[in-house]
């Protein structure tokens, strides 16, 4: 199989879809790895690194899309890239289709087969290929939130850990999954007073058993949320419904109850965001003010630490990429129900129910698609 890896073109996206190690593994199995010139530079990988692994360096994205059987990326294909996809071509990347009808319709029109990293599962019901970036984004959230909280950036001017005689920042983490757990660990490590909200009692018990007094946890209700955000210096949105649009947990009206200069960090922005006032931003212009509340809503947070993120993502995606190349997508998905869960689009049909529900589109079962 010809596996193509184009340069990411989303603003300030420095990650790359295939590491030199992954390219080397593919070549060792008899496949061709086609990497666009300069694709890995943002993550610290030179063209020579890919050449040494046996990959071929291709000058343009157009050549990659025209030649490759499978396109491996990080972020969802942008409008110009979607025009280059073709019938029968396999796309393996993050998609986040539920809040993105334009992308969804373009992928359907292309006739390609698209497998989304964020809906591939594991034996425990987790999201195996989303988890590495969730870990990165969770650990980044308090860091970027602390920067936003500085007065010069529009925040309240509160130090996360306080100082002797002055209390720490109060941080509320909405969601106790992978993002929320990592966010809470880092925020608590910075000395903040942290409370995690979640609606799963087993998850709350797990957090209490593992982290004890490192941070607090509380069952999530509308009342508990309203009470906690009134006193919060920072709220981190970390709620995920696999493949579906994120629920809106804080309304615009509630911003008036918060402290002026408090910070909202929306890690769920890829799925539409979990605050009513959230809108996607970039690393070049990451924050904005709504009613005196600062919002940080960068849609590709892990891109800020591109080398760490690329290697972590590559470790997770490489076995699936190789299975798709070795067997073809139909056999690979037939052999692995977890990979089949990643199938979102095939030959003009939507194959993921949560996306169909979010966008009001008909859905074909993925099991039918592989037949």
* Helical residue percent band: 25-40%
Name the average pLDDT.
Answer: 96
Compute the number of helices: 15
**How many distinct beta strands?**
15
Instruction: Tell me which oligomeric state these chains represent.
Output: single chain
Q: Output the structural class.
A: alpha/beta
Regions with little confidence, pLDDT below 50 for 5+ residues: none
Q: What is the strand content?
A: 15-25%
Strand order of the largest sheet: 3-2-1-4-5-6-14-15
Cα distance, first to last residue?
21 Å
Radius of gyration of CA atoms, rounded to a whole number: 21 Å
Task: Offer a quick outline of the entry.
The protein is α/β, with parallel strands linked by helices.
What layout of secondary structure does this protein have?
Elements: E1 2-5, H1 20-28, E2 32-36, H2 47-52, E3 56-58, H3 61-67, E4 70-72, H4 79-82, E5 90-93, H5 101-110, E6 113-116, H6 131-148, E7 170-174, H7 178-189, E8 193-198, H8 201-211, E9 216-219, H9 222-231, E10 234-237, H10 252-255, E11 263-266, E12 287-290, E13 293-296, H11 306-327, H12 329-335, H13 337-340, E14 343-346, E15 349-350, H14 353-359, H15 366-369
Parallel strand pairs: 1-2, 1-4, 2-3, 4-5, 5-6, 7-8, 7-10, 8-9, 10-11, 11-13
Antiparallel strand pairs: 6-14, 12-13, 14-15
Helix pairs in contact: 6-7, 11-12
């Amino acid at each position: 199989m010809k596996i193509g890896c184009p340069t990411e073109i989303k603003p300030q996206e420095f990650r790359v879809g295939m590491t030199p190690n992954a390219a080397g593994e593919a070549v060792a199995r008899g496949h061709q790895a086609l990497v666009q010139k300069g694709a890995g530079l943002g993550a610290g990988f030179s063209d020579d690194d890919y050449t040494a692994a046996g990959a071929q360096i291709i000058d343009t994205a157009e050549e990659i899309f025209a030649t490759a059987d499978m396109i491996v990326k990080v972020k969802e294909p942008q409008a110009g890239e979607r025009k280059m996809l073709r019938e029968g071509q396999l796309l393996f990347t993050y998609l986040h289709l539920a809040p993105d009808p334009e992308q969804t319709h373009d992928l359907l029109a292309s006739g390609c087969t698209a497998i989304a990293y964020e809906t591939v599962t594991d034996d425990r019901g987790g999201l195996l290929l989303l988890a590495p970036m969730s870990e990165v984004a969770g650990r980044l959230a308090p860091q970027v939130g602390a920067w936003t909280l500085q007065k010069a950036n529009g925040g309240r001017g509160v130090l996360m850990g306080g100082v002797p005689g002055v209390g720490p920042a109060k941080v509320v983490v909405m969601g106790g999954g992978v993002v929320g757990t990592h966010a809470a660990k880092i925020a608590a490590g910075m000395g903040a007073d942290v409370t995690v909200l979640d609606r799963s009692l087993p998850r709350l018990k797990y957090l209490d058993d593992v982290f004890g007094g490192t941070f607090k946890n509380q069952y999530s209700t509308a009342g508990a949320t309203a009470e906690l955000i009134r006193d919060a210096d920072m709220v981190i949105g970390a709620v995920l419904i696999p493949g579906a649009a994120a629920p809106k947990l804080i309304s615009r009206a509630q911003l008036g109850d918060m402290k002026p200069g408090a910070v909202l960090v929306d890690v769920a922005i890829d799925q539409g965001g979990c605050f009513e006032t959230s809108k996607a931003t970039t690393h070049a212009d990451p924050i904005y003010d709504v009613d005196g509340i600062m919002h940080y809503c960068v849609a590709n947070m892990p891109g800020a630490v591109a080398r760490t993120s690329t290697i972590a993502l590559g470790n997770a995606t490489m076995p699936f990429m190789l299975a798709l190349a070795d067997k073809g997508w139909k056999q690979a998905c037939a052999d692995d129900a977890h990979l089949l869960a990643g199938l979102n689009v095939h030959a003009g049909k939507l194959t993921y129910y949560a996306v169909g529900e979010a966008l009001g589109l008909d859905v074909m079962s993925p099991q039918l698609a592989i037949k």
